[in-house]
Amino acid sequence: MPIAEEITVRLHRAMDAADGLTPEDIANVQALIDVGEWAVAFETLCTQIYEWEISLRAAAIRDLEDLGSALGVRKEFTAVLWEDAR
Length: 86
Hints:
Layout: H1 4-17, H2 23-34, H3 38-51, H4 58-71, H5 76-79
């Protein structure tokens, strides 16, 4: 499993790439990161990206897939992101 700092950087990179996340979504994910709830932060982030139909580049989705795998998160959270990939 990646170290906390790497997880944080990768989640922030994904949030930066997700144009259209609301400030509330970002604050919710950040609050989960702050308390070390990496998997829940990841799931929340992916869910909001999907719900808002935010288009990510393939490289960003692949990075999320890799991070999700390392965190032990179900693949469904990232699989749906390919629907809106750019």
